[in-house]
Specification:
transmembrane helix, transmembrane, membrane
């Protein structure tokens, strides 16, 4: 692979990881809110 190709792949991997990280954070936040609601009931 040339340098340009590896940089391109690295950018794709970085954006996918960022996307997954945001989804995981939102999921954990949602689960945390659900747990708090269940405690209040």
């Amino acid at each position: 692979m040339s340098l340009g190709q590896s940089l391109h792949v690295a950018m794709i991997v970085a954006s996918v990881l960022t996307f997954l990280f945001i989804i995981v954070q939102r999921t954990f936040r949602g689960l945390h809110l659900i747990n708090q609601l269940q405690k209040n009931i």
